[in-house]
Amino acid sequence: MSRHNPTRSDNLRRALAQEAARIMAEHGIRDFLIAKRKAAERMGVRDVAAVLPRNVEIEDALAEYQRLFGGESHVETLHAQRRAALNAMLYLHEFEPRLVGAVLSGTATEHSDVQLHLFTDRAESVTIKLMDEGIAHEVTEKRVRMSAERVLAYPGVRFELDEQSIEATVFPTDGIRQAPVSPVDGRPMRRASKLEVEALLDS
Q1: C-alpha distances out from residue 139 to 4, 40, 88, Å
Q2: How many angstroms from the chain centroid is the CA of residue 165?
Q3: How far is it, in rounded angstroms, from Cα 46 to Cα 38?
Q4: What CATH class is the domain 72-202?
Q5: Where are the domains of the chain?
Q6: Nearest 10 degrees: CA dihedral of 14, 32, 88, 128?
Q7: Do residues 114 and 164 make contact, with C-beta atoms less than 8 angstroms apart?
């Protein structure tokens, strides 16, 4: 006989997913694990390993939270983020930009960055373009999971456009053929081209 009542465990896991989603939406936390731990702490859950929700459950709960509480404000914020993403993609068109992450999936909060993947064998060419245009930016580095066993560090830049924070990770040119692993469901990360983002804005 199982130590845990399945129904009670399922209900607790669902409640933890909902609380983690609320924390991410209201406090701008992007790390699923941090949100889970804060949710467990707030709910007084001790046997965390047995009932922690999966990331995909939290993302589903986040989408539901935004439907229930975000309303028109969420729709307007998401549209503005996607419009800024498209403008950044048009500006950086020579680097084959792709939109990824919460702004693409629709679960972005007002605190979310617009996340782009860029592709060039000379990462410094991205920063040179920003410098030539007088766009203030920060050079960054992002650790990206490419498979269950492989995590690689890639250069990146962070800058603002249309009052939105843009976080771009720069991959080699052939990196366009292999998407990193999504932190949500462990599958290859969805990437959207300029045309796909335009279609999202028109829909």
Answers
A1: 48, 35, 16
A2: 13
A3: 12
A4: alpha beta
A5: 6-53, 72-202
A6: -170
A7: yes
Tell me the pTM: 0.82
pLDDT tens by residue, 80-121: 999 999 999 999 999 999 999 999 999 998 888 999 999 999
d(CA 82, CA 149): 32
Q: What is the DSSP string of the chain?
A: --SS-HHHHHHHHHHHHHHHHHHHHHH----HHHHHHHHHHHTT---HHHHPPPHHHHHHHHHHHIIIIIHHHHHHHHHHHHHHHHHHHHHTGGG--EEESHHHHT---TTPPEEEEEE-S-THHHHHHHHHTT--EEEEEEEEE-SSS-EEEEEEEEEEETTEEEEEEEE-GGGGGSPPBPTTTSSBPP-B-HHHHHHHHH-
